[in-house]
Structure formats: structure tokens, C-alpha cells
Amino acid sequence: MGKFDFRRIIDRDNNIAQLLIITLVIFATMSFLEPSRFLRYYNFESISFIFPELGILAIAMMLAMLTGGIDLSVIGVANLSGILAGVFFTRIMVAEPGATGLEEVMRVGSGALLAMMVGLIAGLINGLLIAKTKITPILATLGTGQIFVGLCVVLTGGPAITGFPAYWGMIGNGKVFGIAAPLVLFLLVAITIALVLTRTPFGTKLMLIGTNPRAAVFAGLRSERMIILSYMTTGVLASIAGIMLSGRTNAAKSDYGTSYLLQAVLIAVLGGTNPAGGRGTVLGVSIAVIALMLLSSGFQMMRFSNHLIDFIWGAFLLIVIAINAFRNRAR
Amino acid sequence: MRLPAFLHRSEAAVALVLLAAIVIIGAINPAFWQPDNIFNLVRANVVIGIMALAVLLVMISGGIDVSFPAFAAAAMYLTVIAMNHFGYQGVVLPFIAATLIGAFCGLLNAVFIHTFRMIPLIVTLGTASVVRGLLLGLVGTSIVNIDRMPQSLIGFGRSTVSIAGSQLTLMIFVYLGLAVLVWLFLTRTMLGRGLHAYGGDPESARRVGFPTRRIVYAVYIAAGALAGFAGLLHASMIWLANPRDFVGYELDVIAAVVLGGASIFGGRGSVLGTILGVALLVLIKNSLIILRVDNTWQSVVVGAVIVVATAVTALRDRRKAKAGS
Predict the structure, then answer these.
(1) What is the structure's pLDDT at A6?
(2) Which residues on chain A are in Cβ contact (under 8 Å) with B136?
(3) Whose CA is closest to B175, among B36, B279, B47?
């Protein structure tokens, strides 16, 4: 790699720098408007529990966008993973009264494995439909998303599944060395994906497929396999988000987190991902998710209703689109 | 095997599937054939059908629209609230107002999609969130119930014609009338032909001199207008106005348009196919109960229908590409 060059980070379309400035402006504005409540340790601690789910979903969305696709089924996958884990815990592998801690950990571990298998299979289905059957990603994932949500309804009959083991709750509410467990998990996922994208042939090839699919074919890349693998990764990430969501709320339901879909797309785009493919960084997405979390926590403190916060998210997306359009034109 | 020419059209395939579905469902449960059931199915076509016409226009242009449910809700709720506020009783003016509100929202889409050159899916996700957020956050979240719903709208929405002792809603003719208008626009106007060209290849359409800017603006404004109109029609047919209504409609409507043979890549799609696609989707969704399938399976069935229909379309497209047409 050689020596660290700060200009290279800035030069990445100025995107990271622009994002950092936006984040700082949001932080400063909110601190100025609500100094007593916004600047409390408790506020940042609660953000560190909530944002990782959304952050992981946004990274998943970015992965799908790298090849010029999109995954509209991530929320369905996340909920289906949580619900199947819930079914597993309440009907198949029910807690035994005198279970030792190790047995409980094993039980939670197998539940998590099951949930991630759900994501893997769901991603495989999406990948096959997109790469082999050549269905447009929007329609394929719209359809499978509907199927996954439908399976959630069939499995639960409507109401939420509760009764997750205590250790499962620690994934969403616990602390590791005083740091929120979801945050630790998020960092692990983010670093892994970042390394895969920047330091492995898989990542490089994925970027190439997104930049120029035709050239990728001529370069001898097995595009179909790459695309299937990328949707499988997206699926697993979605299921990890589902594990965290059900762990934090101790429940799983077919319509949890539906507003996350728009937000995940928004964060991915705001984080510098090109929805047409070929460009996107984990760092950009991570900064974007923190910026938007600061924004909505600040507005919540100012007693804006959740509907108005939805409006602000949407407006933010449109403004970013407009700014980027003007910047590209100026160049 | 050589088939007659009309059977090669994708509309024929949809019509055959529709016919087969009707025969099968009718054979499984003869209750299907009761006029009440059939007229209810026809009635369920109206609002989804008008929205599908909107999505059809957008899809022919090569875009996709997920914002029309929010626009429909905004047009419907704002109009009803305004009517109650001014104590206005009428039909024509409110529908014009709702159509204009929808058209204005559509203009917003057009500006971002054409002027700022952003992918339609992401723009419409954003405008949907903006419009719905403003509606629920600033205007209100309470449902306008039947007792506060303007009587003129209820009267209009409940107008029916009696056939064989059952009531067929007259709104079906409103829907079919709009379908004819859209068909005339698509096939008989320069802008409509240009829309097909633009959807097929924007750059070529621009080079041969089609006014691409006007095409994109016309498409999204018309789509918004149709959505606004459909929104108020929905309220007058169910006698209440709920600002949270139409959530999830985007799936059904897009599915119906794709079923009808429109290509998401643009350039291809027809009004007749869309009408058949809507009829097929409504039939499948509403016949689960008659087929004694538990209603919780509805989403799974709709999702599966989308996947199968798009897979078939994709295979057809690839075969055509291989044939070198």
C-alpha cells in the first residue's frame, strides 16, 4: 500500500469530505438548538444501540447497488430471519428448565445460524433470479420481498413472536467492555465488508461488473457467479440486521422496520454509492448513517412527529440528489 | 407449430391465462359465478386499474413509480378535507382538484428525474416519503368517516346499474373511459409515439428529434394526475378518506402492469394488456377465499405471481434477442 495519503481519501469524489462536513454541520446545529438534551452521553449511547441495524441494512443495499442492482427484499429477509429464529426458540428448541449457561449459548448460537441460513438462501434465490433468469433486480426483489413478508404472516398469523432467550436479547441490548453490543457487531461487519471490497479479487471484480458489465464479460469474469455471491452476502447482512432487531425488541413481526427500506436506500445513496453500479464505500455509508441518526434524534428532541421525520428523510434524499446533479454539471 | 398472428401478442397470452384462471376457479367453487361475486371483482378493478394506467405510462418511458400511492392519498385527503372545510357539495370540481394535486406531485417527480437525472425508483421513493410525511405530519392522521364524508361524493361513488338483480358499479365506465384516453394518447399522438421511442432508447429518441424533456414531464405529470383522480374515486367508492390508505398498492399495481406484458426496460406495454393484467391480479387476490385458501397466504401468492410473470417476460425477451429481432 505504501504511505498513507490523505488526499486520496478526499479525492474519492470529495464524497467522504462532503459527508464529514454534513455530519459536523448537523452535529453543531443540533448541539446549538438542544444543548441540554442532545449533548448528553445517554443520547449517544442510545444511538449506538439503534443505528447498527440500519447501518448494516444500508451496507447490504450498497452491495446490491455495486452491480447496478437493488435489493428491495432486505426488510422481508430481516423479519423472516427473526421470526424463524423465534419459531425455533419457542417451538423447536424450547428452553429446558435447568439449562446451563453453555447450553443456552449453544441454543442461541444455533438460532443465529438458522437466521443467517435464511438470509443466505433468500439471497441465493434473489441472485439466481437476477443473474440466471435475468429478471430486473427491482422486480425480482419486489416479488421475493413480498413472498418473504407473506411467509412471515403465514408463520406468525399476524401478531409478533415473543419469548426470545435472554442471551438473544444481549445481541441487541448487551454491552461488550462498556460498548453497545450492536455497535461492536456493526464494526465487525463493516470492517469485514470493507476489507472484502477493497482487498480481495472478489471486491475488485464486483466493482468492475458494476462499472462496465460488458467489459467484465470480455475480461473473462464470471459475472453471474459474482452477482449471485453479492446477493447472498446482502441476504446474510439483512438477516444479521434481523437478529439485532429481534434481539433489541425481544420480538419479531412481519411488518417491523418497514420504514428502514427507504432509509437504507437513502443512506446508501447519500454515502456516495452510485445506484447505477461501480461505486460505493463502507466508510461513506457508515458516515451517512451516523449523520442521519444524529439528524433524526435531534428532530425527535424538538418534538417533531415521526411523520415529519419521514418527510425530512425524503427531503434530505431529494436535496442530496439535486446537489450532486449541480456538482456534476459544474465539472 | 404456426399460430395465428394475434396469438403471438403478449395480450393473447394474458387473456388465455385469465380465461383459464376463471374456468378453474369457477369449477372449484361454483359460487364464483354468482353475479354479486363477479360484479364485486369488476368493482375491485377500478381503482387499481386507473393506477395501473399511470404506472404503464411510466414503465413505457423506461422508469418506475412507487410514489403514486402517496400522491393518491394526498390528493384524496386534501380534497375531502377542503370540501368539508368549505362545506362544498359537488363532484366535478373536487375531482379536478384531486387530479391537479396529483399532477403537481407528478411534476415534482419529473423535475428530479429529468432535470437532476436521477434514477426514477430512488426519486419516487423520496417524493413518496416527502408527500406522505407532510400529509400525515401537517394535515392530519384522522380518518374522515362516512358521517363526515361529503354526501355528493358518496352519491357519485355508489351509482350503479342493475343487471340480473345485482348492482354493477358505474365507476367501471369511468375506468374504461380513462383507459381509452390513455390508449388514444399512446397510439394517436406524436407525444405518445415519442414516449415509446424514448422508452426504447432515450438517446436515439433525442437524436431523431423527439422532445424528450416534454415527454418525461408529460409522463410523470399524467401519472400523478391519474393517481390523484384514482385516490378520490377510491374514497367516494368506500365512503371514507384515510390518509394512511394505499400503503402497499405499489406492489399490486406494478405486478399487474408487468403481468400485462409491459417491459420494465421501457418501450413496450399496452393499455389492453394492462387491463387484462389488472383483471388477472384482482382475480387471483380475491379468489383465495373462494378457493378456500387461508387469507394469510395472499402476500406469498402475489409475490410468486410477480416472480413467475417477470421470469416469463425475461425468458421471452432473451429468446427475442437471440432471434436477432
Answers:
(1) 47
(2) 305, 307, 310
(3) B47
